[in-house]
Amino acid sequence: MCAIFGFLDYKGILSNTMHKKLINALAVNAEIRGTDATGISYINDGKLVTFKKAKPAHKVKLYFPAGTKAVIGHTRFTTQGSEKHNYNNHPFEGKTDGCFFALAHNGVLHNDEALKQKHNLPETKIETDSYVAVQLLEMQNVVDFESIKNVAETVQGSFVFTILRNDNTLFLVKGSNPIALYHFPEYGLYVYASTKEILEMALLESGFAKCKHEKISILEGDILKISADGKIEKSQFEVQEDFFTSYKWHDYCDWYGCNDVEFEEDDTVLEDDIAFLCYCFGVSEEDIEILLDYGYTLAEIEDMLLDTDCFEEALAQAKTLLDEC
Question: Quick one: which of 190, 196, 185, 222 has its CA closest to 72?
Fold first, then answer.
């Protein structure tokens, strides 16, 4: 589990001090979903700048120059590729003939290695599964609705992608993972984060909570494009069924030797029965509930159950934080 966050300021009314206060509040509150690394990308005079550190957000001060119109950010909970190597941390940079761009991802991709082989993608030292999305965009040599649609329909797993192009165009791409986006028309400001709770706490701490705003709906399968002038356009991609949501419970039973379990005729997806998930993977319902209370989605928990070390680390972190609360 990781978190994405950021803003796009299309009127230029707000000061750089307010921008930095906002982005640091977003980052620190996003720590609840990841403390292994923190990073941001922004555009400075048409050039893409990325800053990231293998530290939790509260130990990192995020700076960018006056006049910055948009920032995308990420706090990381490591699942693939050690955060100790900073090149494995988000956001990732990419380039085409027409632009430079940065991409940050919340989720887990299952078929990154298969895609690298299928498309003969260039070798790289970056081990993070998310980076394949950058390579797929580079392969198409353009960052627009169509190329992003192709990526979203090619990767398998859970995701929300945020992409910042060097013309200060922001793309938000929603798969099964969460995202919340608010618009402040008076200030010409869009602000987003992985969850409503993270977003609203950051707005409270940065002084925006009482300002008039509207919620912008982003549904699974949506690609939202916000231009530097604040114009919103929307496109869609076809949602691909993930492994865990495309099989009925009796398929799990065949694999895990639990054919003696009775289930209803209309049992379909994982979300319908947490208890049965526990049975199949040998974990307790209490542990699943702890992770849900911590803020993980069921899709993210599904991914972690395939990696025992990842699941146990996440559970320990969740228990520690919930105990402190």
Answer: 190
What CA–CA distance (Å, rounded) separates 6 from 204? 15
Grouping H, G, I as helix, E, B as strand and the rest as coil, residue 266 is coil
**Could you tell me if 237 and 153 are in contact, meaning their C-beta atoms sit under 8 angstroms apart?**
yes
Q: Sign of the CA dihedral 304, 309, 312, 315?
A: negative
Q: How far apart are CA 127 and CA 262, in angstroms?
A: 41
> Which of 114, 94, 119 has its CA nearest to residue 105?
94
Alpha-carbon distance 219 to 221, whole Å? 6
Structure tokens at 216: 């912008």
Q: Yes or no: say if 228 and 169 are a contact pair by the CB < 8 Å rule.
A: yes
Q: Which residue type, as a one-letter code, is found at position 223? A: I
Assess contact for 9 and 194: CB atoms under 8 A.
Answer: no
3-state secondary structure 159-193: EEEEEEECCCCEEEEECCCCCEEEEECCCCEEEEE
* Whole-prediction pTM: 0.78
Neighbours of 214 (CB within 10 A): 10
H or E segment at 10?
none
Instruction: Say which residue the tokens 């230029």 belong to.
Output: 12
pLDDT tens figures, 93-117: 999 998 999 999 999 999 999 999 9
Residue 60, pLDDT > 90, answer yes
What is the C-alpha separation between 232 and 197, in angstroms, rounded? 24
Paired tokens of 176? 């099964």
Q: Which helix (H) or strand (E) holds 41?
A: strand 37-44
Q: Find the angle CA(151)-CA(156)-CA(160) to the nearest 5 degrees.
A: 65
Contact between 311 and 304 under an 8 Å Cβ cutoff? The reply is yes
